[in-house]
Design goal:
Blueprint lengths: L16 E7 L5 H9 L5 E7 L7 H6 L4 H6 L9 E5 L1 H7 L1 H11 L4 E3 L1 H11 L4 E6 L3 H13 L3 E7 L5 H5 L3 H9 L8 E4 L10 H8 L3 E3 H12 L16
Parallel strand pairs: 1-2, 1-3, 3-4, 5-6, 5-7, 7-8
Helix pairs in contact: 1-11, 6-11
């Protein structure tokens, strides 16, 4: 049988489309998105952007040159509802406005989010003004993170870092070790603990860590996923990954 004319009324109802820009070196972010979004009414399309190791501001800045072309290759000529750029330190190095501008030049009309954009949005929602901060970064990159939060009027009351240089090292840190050392970070004077970096495997320990320190715990991937799914209209609470996703 040959169907000569396709009847458009039989076109299936489409889920919102999300584009995820992951670093070529990131071994964690895709699994985190899949863990939360696998059964949600959203379709996620991933492209990777070249990221040169070691982690330095200079190498992070180089990603800015490729953002538009990488974005354009996610479902070329099709509209994406939301685009998530998966790099905390890269967003700060390149600049939030510049990241958004480069992405929108390729996909006009999309909602654009990043780990720091989503983190600040989450802080406002939860009335968080002081944070304890945990990162895996080397000193020079930590400096840019601290400066960013100061500019956003977020006080960092305590701070700890693993002082690592490679995304592969970040991904291979035992989550139980992160749980142990981050739970010992001084949080008495903080409203919440923020764990920075999309490559750190912390999503599955956030609930347990919140129970241990009796404070909200937020992370780069958690806030990014939260802002992404809320932006496409999914409002139901999701349990198991920290209080934020229950909002």
């Amino acid at each position: 049988m040959v169907i000569k004319h396709y009847d458009a009324k039989f076109k299936k109802e489409l889920n919102p489309k999300v584009g995820l820009i992951a670093l070529s070196t990131d071994q964690t972010i895709e699994n985190d998105f899949q863990n939360i979004c696998n059964n949600l009414p959203v379709d996620i399309f991933i492209n990777r952007i070249h990221n040169k190791n070691p982690l330095t501001k200079e190498n992070l800045l180089k990603m800015g040159e490729d953002l538009s072309s990488v974005t354009k290759k996610i479902l070329p000529d099709e509209k994406l509802n939301t685009i998530a750029y998966g790099c905390t330190s890269g967003t700060i190095a390149i600049g939030e406005d510049s990241v958004k501008e480069k992405i929108l030049s390729a996909k006009p009309g999309s909602y654009v989010t990043t780990p720091v954009t989503s983190a600040i949005k989450a802080f406002k929602l939860m009335n968080i003004k002081k944070i304890a901060l945990f990162t895996p970064y080397p000193d020079a990159v930590n400096k840019t993170i601290l400066e960013y939060f100061i500019k956003k009027n977020i006080e960092v009351s305590s701070f700890a870092s693993l002082n690592l240089n490679l995304d592969s090292e970040f991904a291979n840190v035992d989550p139980n070790y992160i749980l142990e050392i981050s739970s010992k970070l001084e949080t008495k004077n903080a409203d919440a603990l923020f764990i920075s970096c999309t490559a750190l495997p912390v999503l599955n320990i956030l609930d347990k860590l919140e129970q241990m320190i009796k404070k909200p715990v937020l992370s780069s991937n958690q806030t990014l996923i939260w802002d992404t799914i809320r932006s496409i209209g999914y409002k139901s609470p999701i349990k198991g990954y920290g209080k934020l996703l229950e909002n």
